[in-house]
Specification:
With 290 residues, the chain is of the alpha/beta class. The chain has 8 helices and 14 strands. It has one domain: Metallo-beta-lactamase, Chain A. The chain is 20% helix and 26% strand. The strands form 2 sheets. The chain has a 7-stranded mixed beta sheet. It has a 7-stranded mixed beta sheet with strand order 7-8-9-10-11-12-13. It is globular and about 55 Å long. Bound molecules: zinc ion (3 copies).
């Protein structure tokens, strides 16, 4: 894949093994106890399931859980709507979930399957006029988005009709509508990307490895989303077995796998997992505290 962000040389987040900072981080996670809803907009891998041109059993499955659009979630709290990533399927996801407003977007990284729905934010961005809809991303990802979508961010275009979007680079925790969003550094093949911790939940997609330094941010989770592409190892993604080990290590109350490819039939795979671990699916809704 040609679209990726480079690993940044310095990590401004808390280092591992610093008990004081880890404790402070834990306290911060306890948040304000606002009620929130998490909706899975898409649970599929970059090519989606069914995968074009494939005639396997999962791609031809009649189980609606086996239809997986590209990976993204929606958070609703305090009357606001926050997205993580805007996939090439965002338009269809927004119609399906009757999304009528978006107040902020967080980007995990700049692979095509996580950003290409950006233009479909257009009608939803207009409610922010004369302001703009804020997009939060790592500094290198924000720079990439600005270049990739220069027609949106280029102020010289005078004929209207453009998405009203504003990039906000972040390299640490940020408070958005009263909730704290904390970037969780993940390794995705040869690049470093962000997952996010918010209240009692975390969303970690597209990781081949979670660095030791990131684990203290994953304590006390009610809900943990993890990449689990398939059983067979992959250079840039986690497997079912590896993600099960992560669930064990962080002792999340409930875990949901995402970025799932057509190797994993929904029902049969769930039957093989422990009861507190499930494959997520498009349209899944969960309540939690943010
Ligand atoms: Zn991806
Ligand atoms: Zn298939
Ligand atoms: Zn990716």
């Amino acid at each position: 894949m040609p679209w990726h962000v480079r690993r940044s040389p310095e990590s401004p987040l808390e280092p591992a093994g610093d008990d004081h900072k880890a404790r402070a981080g834990r306290l911060a996670h306890e948040g304000h106890g606002m009620k929130a809803t998490l909706t899975v907009l898409g649970s599929g891998t970059s090519m989606g399931v069914p995968t074009l041109g494939c005639d396997c059993a999962v791609c031809y499955s009649s189980d609606p859980h086996d239809r997986r659009t590209r990976p993204s979630i929606m958070l609703e709290y305090a009357g606001k709507v926050v997205l993580i990533d805007t996939t090439p399927d965002f338009y269809a996801q927004a119609i399906r979930e009757r999304i009528t407003r978006v107040d902020a977007v967080f980007y995990t990284h700049t692979h095509a399957d996580h950003i290409l729905g950006i233009d479909d934010l257009r009608p939803l961005s207009y409610r922010h006029k004369p302001g703009k809809l804020p997009l939060y991303a790592r500094p290198d990802a924000a720079a990439f988005l600005r270049k990739m979508f220069s027609y949106i961010f280029d102020a010289n275009y005078k004929f209207g009709g453009l998405a009203q979007l504003e990039l906000r680079p972040i390299d640490g925790p940020v408070e958005v509508f009263g909730a704290r969003f904390e970037p969780v550094r993940l390794i995705h093949g040869e690049t470093e990307i962000y997952g996010f911790r918010f209240g009692s939940a975390a969303y970690l997609t597209d990781h081949s490895e979670i660095p030791d330094a990131s684990f203290h941010q994953l304590e006390g989770l009610d809900i943990l989303f993890l990449d689990a592409l398939r059983h067979k190892p992959h250079p840039t993604h986690s497997t079912v077995a590896n993600s099960l080990r992560i669930v064990e290590r962080v002792k999340a109350k409930r875990a949901f796998f995402t970025h799932i490819c057509h190797d994993l039939p929904h029902e049969a795979t769930n039957a093989s997992l422990p009861p507190h671990v499930r494959l997520s699916y498009d349209g899944l809704r969960l309540e939690f505290e943010i």
